[in-house]
Design a protein that fits this description.
By secondary structure, this protein is mainly alpha-helical. It has helices at 4-33, 54-77, 81-111, 120-152, 157-187. The protein is built from five helices and no strands.
């Protein structure tokens, strides 16, 4: 596992950058939502978005995707490559279902008249959920390559272990980010 340390370091550096990125969005959201934080400017155009109930289902799907990845990690740790592949596949399918659910939430909001240009709260909702979705989509590209590679040939358990470990860490990270974003959207 010659590339294990650089791959892990690379992932952690990426997560640090992504965390900074999301923290900036959350800070901007909080400042824009609260006109008192905007240095006395009259910003009374904030009208909260009515969160579609499908977001609760989407949250459950992302939790289950993260669980699937963790189960894959446990299976590969025991040398059970076929079981790891199946669980990893399940985790990815649940993540795709989460993204489909997010698109459904956007469509429901638009059908109810909540367009991004309608007010700042709407715009932030679309931006925050969209940026999170893009990060998840990027993770699915890596996941897809890993699953394809694992199903085409005999992959050394060490290489599969590292791939699954990194995917699992990333999925857990995306789950935590989503929980923070969803909590922020719910309380505002």
């Amino acid at each position: 596992m010659m590339g294990a340390a650089p791959a892990r370091i690379g992932l952690w550096v990426f997560l640090a950058v992504a965390t900074s990125f999301f923290a900036l969005f959350i800070t901007a959201y909080s400042m824009r939502m609260n006109p008192h934080l905007a240095q006395g400017a009259a910003l009374n155009d904030w009208r909260p978005v009515a969160e579609p109930p499908v977001l609760w289902l989407n949250t459950a799907l992302l939790v289950l995707a993260s669980v699937g990845m963790q189960l894959a990690r446990g299976a590969i740790g025991k040398g059970q490559a076929a079981r790891a592949r199946t669980r990893m596949l399940a985790g990815g399918v649940l993540a795709v279902a989460f993204l489909a659910g997010q698109l459904l939430a956007w469509r429901q909001l638009q059908a109810a008249g909540y367009y991004a240009a309608g007010n700042p709260a709407n715009a932030f909702f679309y931006v925050l959920t969209g940026v999170h979705g893009l990060h998840l989509l990027g993770g699915l590209l890596v996941w897809g390559r890993a699953v394809t590679r694992m199903s085409r040939s005999v992959v050394p358990v060490g290489a599969a272990r590292l791939t699954i470990e990194l995917c699992t860490v990333y999925w857990h990270y995306l789950l935590v980010v989503w929980l923070v974003l969803f909590g922020l959207l719910l309380v505002t």
